[in-house]
Design a protein that fits this description.
alpha/beta; TIM Barrel; eight-stranded parallel barrel; 9 helices; 14 strands; globular
Length: 288
Amino acid sequence: MKNPVIAASGTFGFGIEYEEYFDPTILGGVSSKGLTLRPSRGNAGIRVWETPMGMLNSIGLENPGVEHFVSHEALEMRKLGCAVIANLGGHSEEDYVTGAEMLNGCDIDILELNISCPNVKSGGMAFGTDPDQAADITSKVKAVTRHPLMVKLTPNAGDIVAVARACEEAGADGLSLINTVLGMAIDVRAEKAVFNNVYAGLSGPAIMPIALRMVHQVAHAVSIPVSGLGGISTAEDAIAFIMAGASTVQVGATTFRDPMAMVNIIKGLEEYAEKKSLKNIQDIRGIV
């Protein structure tokens, strides 16, 4: 990657949508909208709710399906001129394995195994909260994929370090964390939960201290690369994650507020490296 900044899954579409704002070739990589084996319309009802320091979402992995991605979106993403990451979700073990096999047919750089989405009624986060289940699905997908495998972890696990180590032992080539934190909103006027699923995923600046702590714990507990995300809005935020041990950073919710956020973060990283006379920004990785 030309730099460590990646557009996080679910916040950047398939990359093409943001070409009117800036040239995506400047990015280190783009992680696709979360994919499922079959097309999905996502969740019904309200799907996004603003919070004081972020947002709750219950999108539910709306996407065109793996087959359509292989024949359409993946080809367009390849033209972006940066690392292409396919984010794969699922409702069952079979979904993950079959989806990974189908993705062997397209030109991507990394398969990001999403076992951490809180907004689906089955699968998703259920695989990521237990070390044994996380290891099992990781090993099964690793056995069939031809791509480097990065497993996306949930902060809602009881022991995220145990889950991370289990994924590493099962063959993961890298880890990304954290996905959204499980939250809730209530419409006091209507006297009911805002979301049809009741609970939703919280992202944005509010979760950054949690994400930073978990990235620090995991990066110091495993020997594979870690991609850090969760509330990153500025170059200073990105630097903090790299100092905590992240090899790359993913920027998500802040892009909705400021489509140019990643451009400014990349520029800020370059300025920091020059100021500190660093040959590579990775020189500060894991110094805390």
